[in-house]
């Protein structure tokens, strides 16, 4: 009876030891293998979510910038057609800063730079261009005079102020009027639209096709 009790006791001790060992192994597996794996998976999941969110925000910002870019280009082109060089330059510069790989605003800025340089040169020299034959363009006229010298004096004054001035010589059926133009355009609509920016020259501004 005693011998059986001893065997039973030893068996119980063995079972307890085995249970303890298994518990330790299970705990070690949980804390040193399972938990780190789960944490790594969770970290990877959160990083993936963060990347997807960042990509979504990037695309949203790019789409917003594209809309803004197109608006800037549209406004810049309008100002460019009306020869409002400083305003057009600002719009093209802002557009180029949004999409630096786009060549169009860079080309337009180069053209504007050339125009501004030409204005500076005309301002320094007081150059007045002369138009003596039809061109098919539409001119914004700010002065019309039968006195050629008087018209040229006024044109020279404007040129020295930096205005791109053209003197239109008298032509058939125009009597003997010498006309001073401060802008010429491809269409009447463009010329009429640009006329508003020349309001400082008085109220008698009109458009002439020649």
Task: Write a brief structural summary.
The chain is of the alpha+beta class and 210 residues long.
Q: For the report, how would you describe the main beta sheet?
A: 5 strands, mixed
| Helix and strand sequence | HHHEEHEEHE
Q: How many structural domains can be distinguished in the coordinates?
A: 2
Radius of gyration: 41 Å
The multimeric state of the shown protein is single chain
Number of helices: 5
Which strands sit side by side, in order, in the main sheet?
1-3-4-2-5
Distance between the termini: 133 Å
Q: Characteristics of this structure?
A:
2 domains, Alpha-Beta Plaits, 210 residues, five-stranded mixed sheet, single chain, 65% helix, 5 helices, alpha+beta
Q: Any overview of this molecule?
A:
This protein folds into 2 domains: 1-125, no CATH class; 126-209, Alpha-Beta Plaits. 65% of the residues lie in helices and 12% in strands. It contains 5 helices and 5 strands, in the order H-H-H-E-E-H-E-E-H-E. It has helices spanning 2-81, 85-98, 104-125, 148-160, 188-195, and strands spanning 129-131, 138-145, 166-168, 178-185, 206-209. A 5-stranded mixed sheet has the order 1-3-4-2-5. 22% of the residues are buried.
List strands and helices in order, with pairings.
Layout: H1 2-81, H2 85-98, H3 104-125, E1 129-131, E2 138-145, H4 148-160, E3 166-168, E4 178-185, H5 188-195, E5 206-209
Parallel strand pairs: 1-3
Antiparallel strand pairs: 2-4, 2-5, 3-4
Helix pairs in contact: 1-2, 2-3
